[in-house]
Amino acid sequence: MAFQMTRRSFLQASASAALTTALSTWLASGAQARSGFVRKPFTAPGSFGDTTTVTGGVCEMCFWRCQLVGKLRDGKLVKLEGNPKSIDNGASICARGNAGVKLLYDPDRLKYPLKNVGKRGAPVWKRISWDEALDECASRLQGVIKNNGPQGIAIFPHGASATYPMHYFEKVVGTPNNSEASFFQCRGPRDMAYINTFGVQAGENVDMPNAKAILLVGTHIGENIHVSHVKQYLKGLENGAKLIVVDPRFSSSAAKADVWVQIKPGTDTAFLLAVMNYLVKKKTYDSAYVQKNGEGFDKFAKAIAHAELDWAAKICDVPAAQIKEVADLLATNAPHVSIHPGRHVTWYGTDFQRERALACLTGLLGAIGTKGGFVVPKGPKLGKVAWPDIGAEHAEEFALHKMAEKHQFSPPGTPTQMLRDTAISGKPYAIKACITWGQNPIQTIPGQQETIKMLQQMDFVMVVDVMPTDITMYADILLPELSYLERYDIVKTGVQWDLNDKHQQYIAPRMPLVSSVSADHQRKDSVWITNELAKRLGHTKQIPAPSAEAMVDKILAGAQLSVAQIRKEDGIHLQSGTDPYGMVYPVRFFNEDLADAGYSGAPSYTPVAEPPQGFARLVYGRVPVHTFNRTMNNVWLNAEIPENPIWLNQTTAEKLGLKNGDRINLVNQDGVVSVKAGVLKVTLGIRKDTIFTAHGYGTKNPAMTNGVNKGFDDQALITNPAVDPETGAHGMRTSFVRIMKDGKVLSIPA
Amino acid sequence: MNCPQSETPASLYRFLAQSFRYPEQAWLTEPYFDLLGNIKQNLALNSDATGLHWNYNAESDGLELLQIEYTRLFINAAPAVIAPPYSSIYLDHEGNLYGQSAVWVKQFYQLHGFDVEGEGDIPDHLVLELEFLALLIEEQQGDKAEQFLNEHFRRWFPLFRERVLSGSTNQFYSTLLTLVDFFTREEP
């Protein structure tokens, strides 16, 4: 439209006087909001006067939780740095940590509670008030509880802020149906295997700085960056540790290795059994430690006696001499060897046994409590904030894996596959409400079509997140959470990164670096949101902390500290620690509990399905600048590595007439084609039977304006996940792919 | 001195600022629409400016539709938010919030004796910039208002307006954008 008059003529027109009066009357009626401004006399900041340092940050661009300081200029966060007081990451942070600034000011972030007035999966959003959002969530959840019982609610949490609501729904509301990606699609088999071998969790507790040899099975430190962990690893190498890397791919770790075992994927446990059997037969294991602390050793030795070097060599497709070399190298350097437990271990659905093998190998070498061995440092003691257990009994009664007497060695929560199958079938009971909190089940859980089916049959879906990830498209009510830079939540503790240094402990609560006081959004922290829900669901009395800050204060009180005190101490409290060396753990080489439950009591190898002819196995890892889907929209990180490369063996590529940089799609055994063509990386550094890519790319939600359609989502190709019998965790390196170029499907030559 | 901003009543900028807040029944009242109609009448819009639905009824579904449209245009949306109402999105190469232009805006506020209320407020939101113009006019600083428009507002507002108009056919917002443009554009 166009106006025939100029502003001047408009303003000079006689009618405008009347308009001005009308405007004044309207303003006087108080219909408009406050201006949003305050009067403030100008004071020149002067040189250097305008940048302040705020301490107390704890990173969450991944889950290692490096301690941060923020550099602020007049309320704007301009830079993040490692807290120089940190004895963990120190002044260093990684690329992702640096890029946190861009998450804070990402225009795609969720800002207000939203109601989906469209369809699940194809949302139309309407901003609503917190009261309306919470009332609706509470009444819909109440409805499901009334009709289906508390077990009718499923929760998919992830991250520090999700712990508080997760415990509320488990312990107070009483649902067992909690599926944490960090267990069932990541660490679960590792944690449970070590608990059932040493009686303690593994963590990544190997003393690499002081090791004489380090064994990494599939672990590719350097491609995944956890700052203090990388420091430990590099310090070990700097000190001359021999590095053994077992990986089908020339990873960044393989590139630094003394011995690179280019193993056939899926056969690692056979390799480990052969190493152990060789040590036992040669009597080069630590017999003193085994005799004193071992349990079921003879049964174990008998159970693995078949695992000769030649047997494993054939299965693993590596020379027997190399397996022997590895075993000898470990024995020579024992007990100062780091047998790394790994972190993301949900590979084949046989992962509990592999992790048991790693733990038993550690025990066999006596590498427990020794310099360079498996050493669990003693962290500081803290107070607790806990929801009362009033619903725990109900939850226990309706736990699916307990009802079915399956997965007896499951990590806490309910195995995802059982939960999802139950939701879809309605048997043995209905699951009709879904809460996701910081997790994106569309990309974390294999079998996307089933996940969508599960969501579609729900009566109610509530999602809490910072960014509009894929799962947010399925929400009925979508709630915006404050980012890790604006909220209180976890209290991170630990010790100095090199255990051989002066013994110290640290306590570092996550405190806001940036004010959340703003008319620009209505984001809230998880404690506030959960408490408001609890009040509406009749659990006011059970609320253990009135606010996130009070929760942190209460936890700190257990160490005679407070938020105020930590602020005085620049965000980190340091205290003297204890010598972690010398502790002894029993080693259950043969675990009778496992045998009683019908599983193998000694670590055992079960072959996994082979790729059909013309297919290669799809394996995945990560790139150092991304934490899967969480960081894909970040403008800096996206610019660094915008797409996931597809690694293909050079000989194979030549046979297929493919070259570096070609655009190809992958097609899996079920005919699923990757949504977008990826860039081919042709390399000698991968086996012919294996194709590798990085996980977490290819978000489908266009509301992630930077991340959408960048690269492709490998999870979409994982349509046949395996399930680990002991733990119920998923196995996700189970898919096989062929290549599609210009619409033509190419078979992978043998 | 040619500074037409000094002649635009502060109340008009305030009215326009309010118009770009989230649509709620509390302020989308009969008197509001009367005023909007009044302004339109005074502007003598030519014939292609038909279809302005001043008879918009806040008690019908209309309000919800407007809220959905506001959410889609300015907050979050699937497939994607159309036009975040911040200058940094349009002026800074990374397209993030709180870029250099937002810092410039905040400093401009401060140089003229004002600051945003909340510590975490993003200073270059359309609503804040319009409110700030009203404050300057009230303070008899029309020349500063002209400077603000010239050095900042006119650099991004047309880009923002273009994004809204190409992504929406909503009459309410297209009219308001025309009004903001009319009261902020450069005139000889």
Write a structural description:
Chain A is α/β, with parallel strands linked by helices and about 750 residues long. Chain A has three domains: about 115-185 and about 380-575, Rossmann fold (3-Layer(aba) Sandwich), CATH 3.40.50; about 200-365, Dimethylsulfoxide Reductase, domain 2 (3-Layer(aba) Sandwich); about 615-745, Barwin-like endoglucanases (Beta Barrel). Chain B has one domain (about 5-185): Orthogonal Bundle (TorD-like), CATH 1.10.3480.10. The model of chain B is unreliable at about 45-55 (pLDDT under 50). At the A-B interface, helix 1, helix 2, strand 1 and strand 6 of A face helix 1, helix 2, helix 3, helix 5 and strand 1 of B. Strand 1 (about 35-40) of chain A pairs antiparallel with strand 1 (about 115) of chain B, so a sheet runs across the interface.
Layout: helices, strands, pairs:
The complex is a heterodimer of chains A (750) and B (188).
Chain A (H helix, E strand, L loop, with lengths): L6 H6 L2 H14 L8 E3 L11 E8 L8 E7 L2 E7 L12 H4 L1 H5 L9 E3 L8 E3 L2 H19 L4 E5 L5 H11 L7 H15 L17 E5 L9 H12 L3 E5 L12 E3 L6 H15 L4 H7 E2 L1 H7 L5 H8 L3 H14 L3 E3 L11 H14 L27 H6 L2 H4 L12 H10 L7 E5 L3 H4 L3 H9 L3 E6 L11 E4 L10 E5 L8 E6 L16 H11 L11 H10 L5 H6 L4 E4 L10 E2 L3 H5 L19 E6 L13 H6 L5 E4 H7 L6 E6 L9 E6 L6 E5 L27 E2 L6 E2 L4 E6 L2 E3 L4
Helix pairs in contact in A: 5-20, 7-14, 9-12, 9-13, 9-14, 12-13, 17-19
Chain B lengths: L9 H10 L10 H14 L18 H14 L11 H5 L8 H12 L2 E3 L9 H13 L3 H26 L3 H14 L4
Helix pairs in contact in B: 1-6, 6-7, 7-8
